[in-house]
Amino acid sequence: MPQKIIIDTDPGVDDSIAISVALRSPELEVVGLTSVFGNATNEITAQNALRLVELEGHGNIPVARGCDVPLVVELESIASEVHGNDGLGNTHLPAPKGKPINKSAAEFIIDTVRANPGEVMLVPIGPLTNIAVALKTDPQIVPMIKKIVLMGGAVSIHGNISPVAEANIYHDPHAADIVMQAGCPVVMVGLDVTQQVIMTPQFFEEVFKVKNPATNLIKRILPVYQAYHDRFHKMGGSIHTHDPSAIAYVINPALFETRSVPVFVETIGRCKGQTVADEHRQWESRKDIEVCQGVNSAGVLALIKERLTR
Ligand code: BDR
Ligand code: CA
Q: Where are the strands (E) in the chain, listed by range?
């Protein structure tokens, strides 16, 4: 039986790659996408989520629109210099045919988990607002969630949006702190590993040899994201593999090494969004999560390439 997943997403160039990898993986059943603000406004990311499922021939997969703003902090500038004004590399694709369903993201998550107790994994690859709202609204779903595999955070290296914070956590640190102590199994696929998985121009050259809806789209949306990586990280056309690494973890966790540790999120001040692993349990008691600290990069890249080109 394929693993049921809900992808909570802010597409987003790397979100788009992640969603295509998931939709092309027989091990997974994508039961829905939920949108959130982040790489663009939530209005735009919801439209992009619809575009992506339609483009891949999965227009039947429900898309639920989520939160427009963080729980407590102000909505900070949208990442248009990273992903383009439209979240998809300034390609300004035609409007999708479908519409978001008539439920909020949190309602969709709650109803889907309740209808499939113990079977659904949540895979947030954007700010964690929708997941936190679902957990707060209906705490009884916690034991029914199989696992939360999130892309976000950095415990042993510096951040990307600030010296200490990764962008998804930074955009809603209060929500992230709720998810870190959700109580169900949580896996953090953070910058510690996603910055070790590098998609190079040669990688994309190979991928683009195969023409299909996914590779055609990625070819169009990639340049803005590459330009950001060049400007900020001096990567010469290569990019980090953030969101697709979370999907790779769900498909094959053996590609990652994890360690169990409680994680806290700083919510205020200069260190807002910092994810702190309480290695020696010196702060108040909190359940461990699994933090990815090692990755078989070649294995993750091979998996992504194989899925995108099938
Ligand atoms: C995360 O931030 C976003 O820009 C990406 O889509 C990814 O989810 C990486 O820090
Ligand atoms: Ca994302």
A: 3-9, 28-35, 63-65, 120-124, 145-151, 186-189, 198-199, 239-240, 256-261, 263-265, 275-277, 289-295
| Res. 16 pLDDT band, cuts 50 70 90 | very high
Going by C-alpha positions, the residue among 237, 124, 101, 252 that lies closest to residue 186 is 124
Neighbours of ion ligand 2 (CB under 5 A): 10, 12, 15, 125-126, 243
Which ligand sits closest to the CA of 49? Answer: 2
Asked if residue 166 has its Cβ within 6 Å of ligand 1, the reply is: yes
Tokens for 255?
């590609």
Estimate to the nearest angstrom the gap between the alpha carbon of 201 and the chain centroid: 23
Q: What is the CATH number of the domain that holds 57?
A: 3.90.245.10
From 13, 243, 249, mutation site for ligand 1 pocket: most ligand atoms within 8 A of C-beta: 243
Domain carrying residue 165: 3-309
pTM: 0.98
- Residues 163-210 pLDDT 10s: 999 999 999 999 999 999 999 999 999 999 999 999 999 999 999 999
Q: Which of 137, 12, 127 is nearest to 70 (CA)?
A: 127
Q: Say if ligand 1 is within 6 A of residue 241 CB.
A: no
pLDDT at residue number 78: 80
| Residue 1: count of CB within 10 angstroms of its CB | 6
| Residue of 8, 10, 86, 243 with catalytic role | 10
* Catalytic site includes residue 278: no
Number of domains in the chain: 1
Helix axes 213-233 and 201-208, enclosed angle (nearest 10)? 170
pLDDT value at 231 more than 90: yes
